[in-house]
Amino acid sequence: MLFIGTNIILACISVGFGFVLNGLGNRYRHLLQDINSTLTSFDTSSIKIKWIEQPLDHFDKKNINTWNMRYMERLDKWKKDGPIYLFMYGEGEASQVFLQTGILYELAEETNGAMLLSEHRYYGKSKPFEELTTENLKFLSSRQALADTARLLELVKSEPQYENSKIVVVGGSYAGNLAAWMRLLYPNLINAAIASSAPVLAKKDFYEYLEHVSDDFEQHGTEDCMEKINEIFTTYEKRFRTVDGIKQLKKEEYICEDTDMTKVENQQLFFLDKSSAFMYIAQYGNPDVIKTYCEDIKNTSLVFSSKVDENDFYDTKNNCYDYEFEEMIQNTKEIDWLVSWTYQTCTEFSYFPSTSSNKHPFTDNISMDLFYKMCTKTFGPNFDEKRIEAGVMETNMMYGGLTPNVTKVVFVNGDLDPYHRLSILEDLSYEAPAKVIPRTSHCRDLFSNRSGDPEELIEARYYIKYLIKKWIGLGDYNKPNEIKHTT
Ligand SMILES: *[C@@H]1O[C@H](CO)[C@@H](O)[C@H](O)[C@H]1NC(C)=O
Ligand SMILES: *[C@@H]1O[C@H](CO)[C@@H](O)[C@H](O)[C@H]1NC(C)=O
Ligand SMILES: *[C@@H]1O[C@H](CO)[C@@H](O)[C@H](O)[C@H]1NC(C)=O
Ligand SMILES: *[C@@H]1O[C@H](CO)[C@@H](O)[C@H](O)[C@H]1NC(C)=O
Ligand SMILES: *[C@@H]1O[C@H](CO)[C@@H](O)[C@H](O)[C@H]1NC(C)=O
Asked: What percent of the chain is predicted at pLDDT more than 90?
């Protein structure tokens, strides 16, 4: 299997396997185990799966087509007048895990809240169409998804028992954007929001991503780590210069015999795959994982990926890595959520992690052209650079980029997470504060405490819950500066 996954690694936890994981299958499993380890019980009997009929197009009343959106409901913690908490899912199949553990679950437990979890249109089981042709995808947008969510909440809120209930939305990553934008567009419906690791600024050439990966390794890696990475990537580049070099590289890196590595886009995919090992660690790891990876690559001359069948480029039939661009496009088309998210990046957000900056050791071989080509090859010639640019501009105009006009939204980021470079890191106002958590990666604040969490992360969770309670009028909770440290 191979597909372009780097634009996918935005998710908080992805249930699918869309990462370009370079030899990182095991580490990925660790991540899932991490989340599971915070689960106190696996009792899902209190969680109900529900469906709501939604208009296909909220903005064209003449379009009378509808589809069914999936959501989940958990009411066993709810008591009269308790708030409603909605966990918004983004680019992936919805999972019940966030109704069983994490910040939303804790809030509901502490404040007698009702819990909901919504699935984004065109993901998981919330599919308006069987086939994701370009034509069918035209109703996929953040704006439509926000309208779906508003309609769901209006319907729930109209039930008499929720008459006095406040509504809080929670999301991480792309869904963190959505949480903030719910408050922006529906301030009368939504009372407060947590926008975790939310890259609210759409950006065509997101070269800061790899810059930040580099910063993480520089700051937390071993002393000679940067030099080593640089050496490895320079060697790759050198190999590509000659026919014999390519032959050698194919052997060293287990590249499939018939993959034509003289093609520029195949070379770029190779570089993307190799860089993605570092991307993944920066986005989901911690300082220890970074250090360990530096140790892992220390004694290798250039090969640092092991053969791992979870790697997106790994061809399990032939036991080799296949970096054939055309093949990658075809495979992407067979995986629904990849098609959907690729569509959203090509039309709304871009977020493509190029090597346009030179402040990193990953050479400069991942050009924006690779991503433009991915968009046009997947969706048609109209989905070109110009269109991406226009989409990004429109997104930022609509939602306000780094200065959305919102209150009662807390913007939380981990400073290891490269996506924080597109998020809000300083308070917008007293009622729209920002929190940056040291030594913490993507969306971690949405999980529950677990051993090894930095103290600042544990404090941040408390602070976020404090803010939400304050904003929905449940003010008699300790201020964070009154936390007693037991250590
Ligand atoms: C978490 O653990 C439960 C129970 O062992 C298991 O059913 C579930 O599949 C696990 N989930 C993940 C994401 O590993
Ligand atoms: C790397 O090589 C050094 C010296 O030969 C050795 O002490 C160390 O254990 C090796 N590290 C790994 C991770 O193989
Ligand atoms: C990588 O980038 C360098 C510098 O732009 C260029 O000379 C080289 O041809 C590129 N190599 C590959 C494999 O794309
Ligand atoms: C921000 O929103 C408030 C009300 O929600 C509105 O009064 C104000 O004009 C808005 N400011 C801008 C700059 O749009
Ligand atoms: C998380 O850890 C902090 C500090 O140990 C503690 O005060 C808090 O109660 C914990 N939260 C949960 C939900 O266990």
From this structure: 71
pLDDT at 97: 86
Q: Does residue 483 register a pLDDT over 60?
A: no
| Candidate from 131-135, 188-192, 253-257 with smallest mean pLDDT | 253-257
Q: Verify whether ligand 1 is closer than 6 Å to residue 42 (CB atom).
A: yes
Could you tell me the two tokens for 142?
Answer: 């953040």
Residue 356 CA to residue 373 CA, distance in Å, equals 16
| CA of 14, nearest ligand number | 1
What letters, b where the CB count within 10 A reaches 16 and e where it falls short, cover 212-226? Answer: bbbbbbeebbbeebb
Find out whether the beta carbon of 402 lies less than 6 Å from any atom of ligand 5.
Answer: no
- For 19, the 3-state DSSP assignment is coil
Amino acid identity at 79: K
CB of 394 closer than 6 A to ligand 5? no
Domains and CATH numbers, the chain: 38-201+401-487 (3.40.50.1820), 204-392 (1.20.120)
For residue 13, give the ligand 1 atom closest to its CA: 13
Distance CA 181, CA 470 (A): 20
**Atom 7 of ligand 1 has which residue's CA nearest to it?**
42
Atom in ligand 2 nearest the alpha carbon of residue 296: 13
Going by DSSP bridges, is the β-strand pair 320-321/314-315 parallel, antiparallel, or unpaired?
Answer: antiparallel
Q: Ligand 2 pocket, 45 CB below 6 A? A: no
Maximum average pLDDT range among 42-46, 111-115, 301-305: 111-115
Q: What is the pTM of this model?
A: 0.91
Ligand 5 centroid–CA 437 distance in Å is 16
User: Tell me, what's the pLDDT at 289?
Assistant: 87
User: Which of 36, 93, 450 for mutating ligand 1's site (highest number of atoms within 8 Å of CB)?
Assistant: 36
Residue with CA at minimum distance from ligand 3 atom 1: 365
Cβ atoms 89, 124 nearer than 8 A:
yes
Strand (E) or helix (H) holding 368: helix 368-379
DSSP string, 288-315: HHHHHHHHHHHT-SS------TTSTTEE
Q: How far is it, in rounded angstroms, from Cα 455 to Cα 106?
A: 18
**pLDDT attached to residue 38:** 66
Retrieve residue 227's tokens. 């030099």
**What values do phi and psi take at 440, rounded to 5?**
-130, 145
* Mean predicted lDDT score pLDDT of the chain: 88
Over 90: is that where the pLDDT of 22 sits? no
Comparison of pLDDT for 481 and 112, the residue scoring more: 112
Cα 404 from Cα 400, distance rounded (Å) = 4
